[in-house]
Each structure stands twice: as structure tokens, then as C-alpha cells.
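JOB MANIFEST
job_type = single_chain_structure
chain_count = 1
residues = 259
[input]
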Amino acid sequence: MTCGRVRVNHREPCRAYRVRCAPIGRVVRDWNNDMHFELPRVRIHSLKDFIKHYLMIVLSILTALGLEAWIEHVHHAHAAEEASRQMTAELRHNLAETRESLQKNEATLQLVGKLDATLIADLKDGLPPAVINQHIRAQEHGFQLNLNWPGLPSSAWDVAVANQSVSWVEPANLKKFSTAYAAQRETDAWVQHDSVLMLDVPRVINFRTDLDLGRDVDPQAFLYTVQQMKVTITSMKNNLQELEKHLADAVPDETQGSR
């Protein structure tokens, strides 16, 4: 590469010499997208040239490493931000569904609780079964096992773990996210395996069938089943309230901002 022309003798104005600049090397990326430095091909004639050449190489390598580290940092920061945004949106959706399930279960619990209180009062008063059955029919809409729970998807967390972006999330936020998703898994496991352990479901179906057919039921046995329903719905409510707390800690309401 020709850098220019300089005169070497003022007495010979018509003669000029080309001064060629030696290349100083370049930073390139290969087909694997790995950054490396290509050394210039120059001859070293003295210790001074060697030191200059050595410092140039070191400076170039440090520049390349610094640039690559900065690019990696920007990539990690962007990936962590996107993962946090996806998990926040997913957990906020799950929080809304959890609160909706709590409201529905609370409404069901109120009906079952009212029927339970009526049966206890009638049995304590020693009313005849026929009269108690009349009271049962008057409130038979309260005899329902309408358990409600949220779906609790976790795809955003699964993706963040799979592409390792979860490891670049700020530690404080990562702790909140992991706690919330762990609470979701525990709730899912409880719903699938333990939520109706205290309930004789076939007995509930039998009583429901008798009521639909207009038949009388045994008040004492009916009370036992109503008590089981009440305990089951209350357990569901307590578990969802615990889940709600963890979700709210991870993703506070938008109107409240970050805590």
C-alpha cells in the first residue's frame, strides 16, 4: 500500500521515492466465528523493532479479547433481559389465574359451609330424617365438588434453562423466579396426587345421584361426606394462597411496581 511520496534530496526535484507503509496486522473472524489476530510479515532488524513488534501484537490481542468479551457481555445481557421478560409475563398470567381459582373455590366453600352448618344444627336439634332431607334439598345446590385450580404453564422457565439464559439473570431476580416455579411444581404435584386424599369421591357421586333422583339420604352419612368436601376445598384454598404469595413476590402487580 503506497502511503505517499517524499523527496529525499532537494537538489534532485525530479526524482522521488515511494514510501511504503508496513501493515500492522488485522483482527479477523474465521468460519467458526472465532476471533483471531493475523500477524504482519515484517523483518526485525533490531531489539527496538522486536519490542515494537511485540507490543503491537500484545495490544492487538488484548483489543481483540476485550472486543470479544464486550460482544459476549452484550449477548448475555440481551438474553437475560428477554428471558426475564418472558418469565415475568408467564408468572403474571399464572398469578391472575391463581387468584381467579381462589375466588371460585371460596364461592364453592361458602355454599358447602352453609350446608354443613345446617346439617350440624339439624342433627344437634334431633330433627327427624325427613325434615333434615327437606333442608338438604333446599340447599342441594351447595352440594358440589367444584374444585378449581390454575393450569400453571412453565414454558418460559423451561426455555431459559434449555438455552442457559437463566444463568445470566440477576441473582436476586433469579432467586424469585426459581422460588415461584418451584412453588408451581409443588402445587401441581399436590393437586395431581394428594388433593382428594381426604374425600370419598364415589360416595359423593352416589349422594349426588340420590339427590338428583329425589331420594332421601342418610343425614349422618351425608354430613360425613359434606365434611370431607369442606376439608378438601379448604386444603385447595390454602395451597393456592401459598402459591399466590410466591408468585406475587416474583412478579408484583404492575400498578405497584417492583418491590
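[summary]
Strands lie at 2-6, 17-20, 26-29, 35-38.
Helices lie at 47-124, 129-138, 155-162, 171-193, 201-212, 219-250.
exit_status = 0
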